[in-house]
Amino acid sequence: MPSTPTRSVKARTRTGEDPMRTRTRGTLALAVTAALAMGVVAGGSATAAPPTVVGAAVSEAPTQEDLPVFQYQGIITDKETMSYNPTDEYIFPSVFHAGAHLEDPLAEWYLYLGPHDAPGGIVLMYADSLAGPWTEHEGGPVIANEWDDHYSVSHVATAEPFWHPEEDRLYVYFHGENTTTRYATSSDGVHFDYGGVAVTTAQGGEGITETSYARVFEHPDATSPYAYAMFYMDNTTQDIRRIRVAESYDGREWDVRPEPLVVPGAAEGQNVSSANLWEWEGQLYVIYHASSGKIHARTVDDALTETGPTWTLHEASGVGDDTGRVAAPDIVTDETGTYLFYESGDRLGATIKYAKLDPDAVREPAPGVDPDPLRRQCSGAASDEFDATALDPELWSAGERTEASRHELRDGSLVLPTYRAGVNGAPLLLQELPDGPWEVTTEVSVAPTEPFQQAGLLLYADDANYAKLDLVHGSAGLRLEYILRTNGSDRNTGFDSVTPGDRVGDQLWLRLTSDGDTALASVSFDGETFEPWGRPVDLDRLSPTAIGPFAMRGATAAPEIEASFAWLRWTPTAAEQTACDEELTVPEAPADDESAAPGRAVLRTTSGWAHGLHDGSFEVLLDLWWGTNGSVFALYENGRLIAVEELALRTPHAQSLRVPVTGRPDGTYVYSGVLLNSRGATETAPVTVVVDDAAPGTPVLSHDNWDGDGAFTVTANLWWGTNATSYRILEDGVVVAEGALTAATPGAQQATATVTGRAPGSHTYVAELTNAAGRTVSAPLAVPVRR
């Protein structure tokens, strides 16, 4: 670790002394400078107040709906006309404001990019406006994969230009091999002197295999002794890519923090990469791409230690050329607007595109709670509950090798053996895909214990072209994967095959969703909340015709096991949903011998009965203690019909009914009912339920670092209360432990984080508990380390 320099570090204001010094880090300041010249503030109206500077308090916590909308503009790298094009792919666009720093630049703006596959190489383009047109600098690459005696590597890629304010010189960081991030310096942005090695895998700790995709900026924390900070991507021996933070006094030697800043979650898939620092309306964000094929954003504090929830900042519209994966974001502003530069397309077939911030566009709100996540209440016409004695041949008309099928319909489920074959040899039970958008969900029970036992959903074109979403026992253990195979070759499974941990129980719910252009995978471990899984599949590339459940084990010696599918349900079309909604109406009561309308019944609820918690799962009880009976009961929640139940007539004896209600988030719910018979209808008095315990109870933190030696365990205990389904423990804002929890409200739950090698000082820990209704955060716990 380099020692702290004796010279003083130049004082840095929160917005930077030169708002154009850094690209994305300085985007907001530059946007304000340019917008004020035009009489408006970027993203706001002419009368809007300037946004809060970095570090100032934000009046309200931002939400995903507060993020701006970027509209697709076009392609920058025309592969047919680019002179340096060794591999037909370009990645990682990085914009530098040459006119603000260089004496005689080729143009106002420089754009660095290049291929990743060998030999790689850094390409320079330039333009007088961010809107283009962009011209390629002839004689590229400006940095190659061989450089005198300094290095000779298979490729160099991902140039990150950074104007060094202490040296008044351009630094460009790049990687080559993937294990090493290097840097070069320049006075003109075209001709470079080799600088040295900035960060290697050795600095990332044991088990780190990659150190690449760096972005560099002035440190946003004015209290930090470091002048500069870096986001970069590492990779682990488990093939999980994460975002790390490195810090530097001089931009040459770097200290790497021991823990990652961003670890991929369910929304991202197995990998996150190409992180950048971006400021919007006074809030810092870390923006990056992921296995999801989208560009995500998380709020981040000035110290670069704590991030917020994962949001989607940008994704392809699916219209025209604006399709496929989006990655490596770089947001920059000039007098013509604010632009998002990014790579688009398959990992080794990408090109560079750009989008422009539309100040008038409104981001679509995040989806609400799905009232029917398993399509129990309403499903499409092609759905099959597997409750007959044989499969309907009209529904299952697209199968392959069905004459060899050994499936059974058993106890209301479709049971498949794991055939000793792959997709190209196993019997396949398939339904035809409809035109346009569609969505299919299934519930599967399977327990793979030996390599290549697997079961799930198959999206089928032919035996060499398909996508499959399945639970499989791979060579390294249990995996939950969404894999595309075209022309007999799998897409890189490292991006789409994820270890599910201990979240898989007796059942697993799998879903494939298509908008007509792509097919998205999602998974539920509880039957209520679905998480996106892996990357979207391009349907133009695959051209599938059928879908269905499958089970197999390949040509292996693994024993045959069974997979049980409880049902396969199509999400209803708009017309089918309308028909379902119309079906849930209060019917006419059947003819009976009653002489009067029903008596007045009473409604009660069991909310809080079991353990005093109003957690959103309870029953509504109907009681008619004595009098004329009713044959139909209609229950309303906040004025919306939610259940219609039939009752047996036993006038004048009592009638009672229990209607379950589950999964309600915190809020107030008023229930009312109508009891009917052939003579009329009688309303009940309403009953109100206030749900205020739906989110998990608050955990309490403790530690055992009594000797102060830096090796200890932090324990989060929920002694009693509404249970969580997952947890995270954060150390100084960085996740150090996370996983799934089994909910058994109101029983105790516990999660731990074991840490070692902590430096002397005070470290602060926070625990987060999450369930479908929300997240609860513990009080912080400070743990002193003395030696």
UniProtKB/TrEMBL annotation:
<dbReference type="InterPro" id="IPR013540">
    <property type="entry name" value="ChitinaseA_N"/>
</dbReference>
<feature type="region of interest" description="Disordered">
    <location>
        <begin position="1"/>
        <end position="20"/>
    </location>
</feature>
<keyword id="KW-0326">Glycosidase</keyword>
<dbReference type="InterPro" id="IPR041542">
    <property type="entry name" value="GH43_C2"/>
</dbReference>
<dbReference type="InterPro" id="IPR023296">
    <property type="entry name" value="Glyco_hydro_beta-prop_sf"/>
</dbReference>
<feature type="domain" description="Chitinase A N-terminal">
    <location>
        <begin position="712"/>
        <end position="784"/>
    </location>
</feature>
<dbReference type="Pfam" id="PF08329">
    <property type="entry name" value="ChitinaseA_N"/>
</dbReference>
<dbReference type="Pfam" id="PF17851">
    <property type="entry name" value="GH43_C2"/>
</dbReference>
<feature type="domain" description="Beta-xylosidase C-terminal Concanavalin A-like">
    <location>
        <begin position="383"/>
        <end position="550"/>
    </location>
</feature>
<dbReference type="InterPro" id="IPR013320">
    <property type="entry name" value="ConA-like_dom_sf"/>
</dbReference>
<dbReference type="InterPro" id="IPR013783">
    <property type="entry name" value="Ig-like_fold"/>
</dbReference>
<protein>
    <submittedName>
        <fullName>DUF1349 domain-containing protein</fullName>
    </submittedName>
</protein>
<dbReference type="InterPro" id="IPR014756">
    <property type="entry name" value="Ig_E-set"/>
</dbReference>
<keyword id="KW-0378">Hydrolase</keyword>
